[in-house]
Amino acid sequence: MKLKNQDGQIAKLIELETQRQKETLQMIASENHSSPAVREALGSLLTDKYAEGYPGKRYYGGNEFIDKVENLCIDRAKKLFKVEHVNVQPHSGSPANMAVYLSLCTPGDTIMGMALDMGGHLTHGAKYSFSGKLFKSVQYHVDEKTYLVNYDEVEKLAKEHKPKLMWVGFSAYPRILDWKRLGDIADSVGAYLAADIAHIAGLVAGGVHPSPVPYVHIITTTTHKTLRGPRGGMIMVTKKGIQKDSELPRKIDKTIFPGIQGGPHENAIAAIAICLKEASLPAFKKYAKQILLNAKALAKALQEYGFNIMSGGTENHLLLIDLRNKNITGIDAQNLLEASGISTNRNSIPYDPAGPFKPSGLRVGTPAITTRGMKEKEMKMIASWIDEVVANPKAAKKIAQEVKKLCKKFPLPK
Ligand code: DSN
Asked: What pTM value is reported for the model?
């Protein structure tokens, strides 16, 4: 039976959300528009199948084809990211990171990660997360003037605290990390080094951002941000990781199942396999490059309007805007932009005097609007709308109409 006949309420809400996505600009840096093929796999009968265990060793029958799907997904991930072992079962990024902790550490062990308000992720040791509650968390920061990771501080803290596990990666940091230096620091204290590339996985896969592979032991990622797949997660073990600990693949797999998860979402795994195939094609390289060009163009145009772009620009898909000189808070800017058809999120800026509830910053990203085919010219238009509405909130309605017109010219992937 058609959804709208069976459950009109949910059908209507899906229709409204679809319309919202079509008619407005999705500029939340962690969002994207997946392909119809990815969504077809997600909505397939694979969602009905139980497959606890791993290919060839399941705790349920009937997994002949499911095994092939999961193996294809694993093989494609290994090839695309050039790693030795991949677990494609984590339901998303946080369980992937949790599995890394529980594979390598016991509660009370010392871990290190970038502080949340510096651009790090909750699961990198923030006190509100399991990672900051179960482990002795040492947090590193960005430099107060350059807003770049303070590598000297990372080194000092690592030497002082000798963490068992170090995290590198971020949710709101606009620059390329020095993977080599971080790898050297971890090696110098004998720590496991895990790179969380959730935000930049598509840029790494597309060859437009340095890969951490040679320098880290483990890589975790989500699959729905720049990689443009379904919601999901992966844990990868590098050659360097196997050299440090040949048991790493087994430890990770055992922690995901039966450690913290039950049945994998094989419909999502099929959809991840599809996005990995898409990400291996030449068109994806072009896409990844355009994400960066668009982010740079947007940063430059906003700077010309007097916006303060943290760290002076961007080397990836996101920008962090310090709004203090515009006399508007992050939440007010987020709401005004939403009324203008531009979806973004408020964000703390490093050393934010305003605190996490009413932060001074806004995080803006280009992955989704680049998927629609927008280029530098459109970035200039978007910057002008951001400037206009921040200066004159009454312009929101008019801008929303202009955004709608632009969106019509750049439809979602069909
Ligand atoms: N929630 C993601 C983001 O928006 O960056 C990180 O998990």
From this structure: 0.97
Residues 233 and 375 in one domain: no
- Would you put residue 316 in left (φ > 0), alpha (ψ -120 to 50) or beta? beta
Catalytic residue positions, numbered: 50, 52, 196, 222, 225, 231
Q: Which two tokens stand for residue 94?
A: 């946080």
Which residue range(s) make up the domain with 162? 40-279
Q: Which residues contact 139 (CB under 8 A, 6 or more apart)?
A: 112, 113, 114, 115, 118, 120, 124, 125, 126
> Which is nearest to 88 in space by CA: 245, 286, 200, 227?
227
Counted domains in the chain: 2
Gyration radius of the chain over CA positions: 21
Check whether 357 has a pLDDT greater than 90. Answer: no
Q: Distance (Å, rounded) from C-alpha 140 to C-alpha 216?
A: 18
Closest by CA to 294, choosing from 363, 379, 209, is: 379
Distance, CA 3 to ligand 1 centroid (Å)?
30
| Strand, coil or helix: 192 | strand
Residues 111 and 140 reside in one and the same domain: yes
Same domain, 44 and 121: yes
Cβ(94) – ligand 1 distance below 6 Å: no
Task: Decide if 186 is inside a domain.
Answer: yes
- Do residues 41 and 271 touch, judged by C-beta distance below 8 A? yes
Residue-wise pLDDT tens digits, 99-129:
999 999 999 999 999 999 999 999 999 999 9
**Residue 34 belongs to a domain:** no
Is residue 6, in this structure, part of any structural domain at all? no
Question: Does the CB atom of residue 171 touch ligand 1 within 6 A?
Answer: yes
pLDDT in tens, 222-248: 999 999 999 999 999 999 999 999 999
